[in-house]
Every structure is written in C-alpha cells, then in structure tokens.
C-alpha cells in the first residue's frame, strides 16, 4: 500500500498509509533503520462499547502545505462522529505527536475508547525485541539494543487507561491488537521476541462537543533517555506546546522567501510547498543524504526499498533547493557526495544515509570482463549541481573546498572513461538502471559536466586543465552527433553498445530522457531544427491524452496486461520545463500555468507525488512519495518564477 503522507525532522522519518497507520518509522537517520518495515501500527475505537477499526471508516488524508504536518480525518455517519488525527514530529527532539480531536455530532454523550497499536521490527528485525509496561510512569516501552521507543497518551494530564503487550507472527499468534476488539485489554505486562502492544484511552465526549487526546511516541537509545524525555514532555513541553511550536517552526521555514506566484493556481502553489516539505523530510540531518523514498512498499514487489541515496536524485534535489534559496540544504547534499564519491572520481550505484555503500544489482563483470558497475550520469550530474549552487551563491570557498573531490577527480575520470576511437563514453548503466550501454542521456550529462568543470577550472586559475576538459567535451559532442544521431531519419538513438571502437545494437526506442537531456544539458538548442524534428517524432509516442508522459515506449515497469505504459511524474514535468524555457511572453507562460494545473490530477488524494501512476486508474504506483518527483516539481515552479522575472512581472523573490 503506497504511503499517503510523510513527516520528519531529519533524524526521524515516518510514513503513514491511507488509513493513517504508521507503516515506516526511521530513526536515528531519515532513511536508515526502519523499525516498522511495512508492519502496521493499527488504530481502533470503541463507541459506547461497539468496536471499530479506523481503516473501515470513511477517511480523508492530507499532507499540509503550511507546515510539516499530515492529517487523517475519519467519519462514521451512522455513529455521528468525526475523529481527526493531526501528526507531527517535534522539530527539536525525536518525538512523534498525534493530536486527536473527537467530535461528537450526535444529540447524546458518547463513551469513547481510543486504541493505538505498536507493531515494531526494531532494527528491521522482529526478533530479540522486548516490550513492557512501566508502572512508575504508566507507559509502554519497546526496545532492542540501543533503539528504544516509549509510548504514552495524554488527555487532561491523565495518561494511559489500558494496555497490553503480546506477540505477533509467532506460535499462531496474530498479534495483541486482536484483543482490542474485545475492548478490555488483558494487561499482559511484558513479552520478548516479535512483540506488539496496544495502549488505550477512555474519553467521554458530550453531545455536540469535541475532546482532544494526544498520543506521543519517543525514540531514544536507552530506557533512561526515553523516560527522561517523557518527564520533559510532562513537565516542560506538553504535547500541545510541542505541536504548536513545531507547526510554527515549519511555517516560518516555508516562508523564508515570500514568493510571488503570479497566475499559478492555489492548488499548484500548495503542491510547491508540500513538495518542499517532502524533500526536506527525506534529507538526513546528520549526513545530508537525501533518500529516494521512505515508502517500504517495494519490499512487497522486490528485494529492496527506495530508502537509499542515489547521486542522481540527490543532485536534482540539490539543484531545486539552490534555485529557491535553501542553500544550507544544497550544501548538505553536496557534502554527502563529496564524502561518498570514490577516490578515482566515480559514483557507485547508491548509498545508505550513513555514507556506506548501498545494495546493488549491477555486476562487476560484463561478458567475462571487469567493468565498473556505475551509472555514469550519476558522476556527471554532481558537477552540474555544484555549478547551479555556485551560479546563485557565488560561494567560491565552498567550490574550492570541493574542487578536487567533486570537479577535478570526476572530470579526469570522465576524460579517461571514453572510447577514444568513437569519442563516446564507455558503456555504463542508464538512469533507468536497466542496461549496460552508451546512452544519449548519459552522454549529454558528461558533455555538460566537462564544460562546467572547464569553467570552474578557469575561474580558479587552472587554465590548462580547463582547456583539457573543454576540448574533451567538444570531442564527445562531436561523437554524439556522429554516432548517436541518426541522420537518415533525424532521430536520436536511445543507446548503442560500444566496444573497442565498434558500435552495435542501435536502440531507436523513443525515450523521454533523450529528449530532455538534449536541451536541458545544452547539447542542442531547443529551437534548433534538429531538436524540433526529433521532438515532433518522439512526443506523439510518449505523450498520453491528458498530457502526461511515459518514460519510453513499451515501458513494462508496473505495466498491467495490455494497457499502455504508466506515465511518470518527472517525465511529464520535463516537457513542461521545456515549454517554460521556450516562452517568450507572459501570455505564453500563463498557458503553461494551466498545463501545470492539469498535472495535479497525478498527485495522490493526500497531495503528494508518486513515482508513476497507473495508466487506467490514475492512482499511485510504486514508491510514494518520491523525492525526485517533488524536487522536479520545485525546479519546474522555480523555472516558471524565473521567467516571470525575465518578463518583469513583479518581484518573485527568487535568489538572484
């Protein structure tokens, strides 16, 4: 089940599903050590002694555009009751807070009992866990080693009214959550192994009135630490105070710049701010890595999740944040890659947020020969991200600090990692991570990176090296036009296979990344005859009736049966970016604003962007939310605002 909302503070990241249930809980990094891993922290309620699971209620979910908060609203018309969950993670400490407002819309009082289930797999393992009730503080604690979680509930300064601790998935035990259906919990005080727990709160809600309950979950590294934090909450920072100050903090953070969104709809602007919060929540505070997604749903379909740092996704996130003035986050991300890039100048597949090497399906051997298991565009795009940061900030000290690691070494690597007879890069894996070949997209990123490495080198007085990089970029651009451009029909190959000066396996597949890379990385002018002819060829193949774009023709990833390929968010935004780039008047730009509104149908009901949507149902598919999708939307809006500046339509407050 793809996630609907996310909340985080850089050290803790929580993903909730459409039922408002916690499905992913990362701590102490945003993206490392998922202590739930797709299990379910269930939510239940009894109304006048009649039990229900909230998942069976009518429900509405939303990701806030005003602060880093999510909301779940549950209604039961026949019971005339509405329950609203507002969810935050305290910005100063690792405390997950849920503000629950129970609204009795009936003409008589109701006895309510709220149930909160906890089903941990601490350190991503359900074994060697312990859960226990702690009477001195009336709390339930789960722990495994140095990962400890304390659960408490407050209403009118009173805590937990009922509890139990049990087992799930062991000895035919489904889980202690099933005891909630009997309303009175058995008060089992301790268990070890695959442990779950349930805590409950009794509330009487008068007719026509609202009662508020706070649930909070504290993360720490020792039992003493979480107990001290619990005391801190009870004595100094009660949940309502944490809730208000956190909301105020993130509201101030989003309003760092008073952007002027001329002609953009309110919904488009809301998605911009939601995107900003989603990207921020996926950035690890300690190391600066930005994970692709905290959604562990992918474990249900494959061997792994998206909770890794790809240089590509990270670079695009850094660029988007630079464009709108969040430079401290851009630097964090860039610094992460300065520490993870190899000494030889190339990026490997992906990384954990603690900077260790992530899992990979790329082999180190191809056709019996040693081959680097890299996606070369991930190396190239880092120079592009650093250049974008520098162009806006002029932070030459930061550039000089990272020159060797992120400019010289990668540029030297790219100069050497070529087929000299063809003036093309050697084979590497593509941005879709599927095949080992030479791609037009990758080649464009390499050309762009070497040009920018040349510019950086010249700025820093390294003219000989700068000329070498520029000459190599020119040579590769000639190689691209010679071998990746099909002069016969005016199209570009998606890829070719290169080996010892020989080209084989020319792939003519129409691919959105090919079109995008040619203009975005300034290999061709978007107004050139060659580009326009290719655009006219490829767009009808990739664009669907609602204006959305698939990745490439006959893309089978999550495709259902004979249906068409699924549209992706980033590929759809790429073409909108091209349209923005081409606008020459405010009237044309307003037309693009209307197309941005058309894109909104691809967001989830809660207002976040997935990786892709189902062709038939237009519902989210794969990792949700996807950081790259949101970063791409931020960059698209930033490009729109930049055009407003060019046309002199008011002050947009973009960094100059």
Automatic annotation (TrEMBL):
GO terms for biological process: carbohydrate metabolic process. This is GH15-like domain-containing protein. It comes from the Bacteria. It holds the Pfam family Glyco_hydro_15. Residues 272-637 form the GH15-like domain. GO terms for molecular function: hydrolase activity, hydrolyzing O-glycosyl compounds.
């Amino acid at each position: 089940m793809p996630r609907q909302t996310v909340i985080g503070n850089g050290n803790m990241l929580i993903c909730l599903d459409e039922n408002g249930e916690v499905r992913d809980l990362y701590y102490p990094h945003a993206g490392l050590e998922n202590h739930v891993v797709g299990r379910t922290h269930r939510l239940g309620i009894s109304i006048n002694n009649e039990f229900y699971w909230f998942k069976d209620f009518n429900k509405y979910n939303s990701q806030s555009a005003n602060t880093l908060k999510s909301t779940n609203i549950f209604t039961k018309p026949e019971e005339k009751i509405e329950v609203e969950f507002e969810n935050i993670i305290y910005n100063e400490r690792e405390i997950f807070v849920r503000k629950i407002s129970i609204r009795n819309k009936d003409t008589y009082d109701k006895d309510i009992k709220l149930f909160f289930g906890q089903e941990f797999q601490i350190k991503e393992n359900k074994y060697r866990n312990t859960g226990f009730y702690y009477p001195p503080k009336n709390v339930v604690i789960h722990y495994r080693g140095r990962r400890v979680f304390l659960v408490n509930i407050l209403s009118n300064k009173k805590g937990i009214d009922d509890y139990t601790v049990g087992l799930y998935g062991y000895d035919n035990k489904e889980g202690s959550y099933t005891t909630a259906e009997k309303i009175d919990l058995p008060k089992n005080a301790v268990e070890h192994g695959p442990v779950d727990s349930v805590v409950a709160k009794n509330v009487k809600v008068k007719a026509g009135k609202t009662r508020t309950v706070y649930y909070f979950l504290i993360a720490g590294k020792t039992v003493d630490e979480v107990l001290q934090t619990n005391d801190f909450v009870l004595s100094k920072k009660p949940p309502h105070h944490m809730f208000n100050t956190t909301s105020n903090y993130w509201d101030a953070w989003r309003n760092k710049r008073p952007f002027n969104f001329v002609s953009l709809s309110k919904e488009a602007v809301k998605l911009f701010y939601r995107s900003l919060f989603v990207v921020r929540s996926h950035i690890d505070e300690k190391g600066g890595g930005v994970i692709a997604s905290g959604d562990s749903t992918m474990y249900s379909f494959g061997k792994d999740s998206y909770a890794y740092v790809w240089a590509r996704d990270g670079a695009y996130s850094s660029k988007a944040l630079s464009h709108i003035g969040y430079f401290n986050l851009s630097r964090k991300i860039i610094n992460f890659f300065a520490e993870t890039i190899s000494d030889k100048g190339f990026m490997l597949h992906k990384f954990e947020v603690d900077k260790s090497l992530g899992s990979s399906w790329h082999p180190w051997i191809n056709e019996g020969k040693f081959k680097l298991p890299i996606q070369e565009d991930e190396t190239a795009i880092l120079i592009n991200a650093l250049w974008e940061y520098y162009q806006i900030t002029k932070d030459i000290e930061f550039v000089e600090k990272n020159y060797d690691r992120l400019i010289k070494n990668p540029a030297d690597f790219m100069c050497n990692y070529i087929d000299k007879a063809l003036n093309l890069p050697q084979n590497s894996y593509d941005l879709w991570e599927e095949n080992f070949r030479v791609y037009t997209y990758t080649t464009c990123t390499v050309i762009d990176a070497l040009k920018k490495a040349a510019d950086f080198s010249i700025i820093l007085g390294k003219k000989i090296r700068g000329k070498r990089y520029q000459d190599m970029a020119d040579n590769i651009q000639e190689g691209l036009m010679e071998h990746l451009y099909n002069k016969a029909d005016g199209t570009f190959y998606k890829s070719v296979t290169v080996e010892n000066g020989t080209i084989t396996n020319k792939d003519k597949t129409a691919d959105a990344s090919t079109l995008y890379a040619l203009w975005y990385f300034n290999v061709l002018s978007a107004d050139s005859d060659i580009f326009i002819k290719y655009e006219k060829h490829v767009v009808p193949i990739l664009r669907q009736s609602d204006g959305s774009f698939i990745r490439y023709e006959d893309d089978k990833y999550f495709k259902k049966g004979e249906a068409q390929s699924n549209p992706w968010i980033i590929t759809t935004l790429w073409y909108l970016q091209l349209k923005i780039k081409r606008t020459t008047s405010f009237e044309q730009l307003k037309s693009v604003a209307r197309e941005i509104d058309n894109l909104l149908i691809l967001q989830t009901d809660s207002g976040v962007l997935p990786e892709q949507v189902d062709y038939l149902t237009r519902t989210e598919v794969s990792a949700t939310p996807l950081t790259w999708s949101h970063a791409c939307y931020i960059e698209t809006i930033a490009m729109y605002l930049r055009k407003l500046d060019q046309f002199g339509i008011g002050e947009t407050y973009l960094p100059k």
